[in-house]
User: Fold this.
Amino acid sequence: MSSRLRLWVLAVGGLGVAVLFVLACFDLPAFGGLRHPYGDRAVHAALARHTANTVSSVNFDQRAFDTLGEESLLFGAVVGTVVLLRQTRDEGRLPPEPATVAPPVRRYALVALPVTLLIGLYVIAHGQLSPGGGFQGGIVAATALHLLYIAVDYRALERIRPVGLYEVADAAGEAAYLLVGTAALVTGAAFLTNFLPYGTFNTLSSGGTVPLLNAAIGVEVACGVVVLLARFLDQAVEIESGDRDGEAEAGT
Assistant:
């Protein structure tokens, strides 16, 4: 096939996709109108499955396979960062220097740390009941740990952040999502189909597999973000320490 013919095939295919896209846009409900077919169906399905938060019902039930792809993107980014920023044989790591923190900053950051962590865990645990869920709560929980970096110094953060354990937990969160989906196959249902009792509406045990998938996402996101920040912070600390050593040698 010549390059000219390939370009014509690409142009025809692109034109076809553009026409279909425009036709689909014309059939969308008017903004602010009274007709909401997609929202109405999503709410009906969420209530039928005893999931009070419709967004979580969509994410972890009606389009759970898409959510698996989103989770896998973050997991792949973490793996890629770990591989690219790993310490090589010819690299050395210097311990970070202690940093002076203003007393007000130290005091308020230490107070905010447990509160922020509790909020993150609450958002994850109640994802099927109220706004939030594993993605949002995972980010909040990961941020809470790094308040110790602001309140004390980098060495204090390292003591509560064994990167190896967080890497394992990140992989475990990804695997847990896959295992819950695979468990549905054992019951004869499709992948990621709910196979548990729906429970009592508006309770923590409601929603079938939604709380399990939501918790798996929370673990993966929280640990993945911690690992990402750890790798980037390690590089920044090493570079800064190396610059200080170079300046000291130049001064002597």
About this structure: The chain has one domain: 36-250.
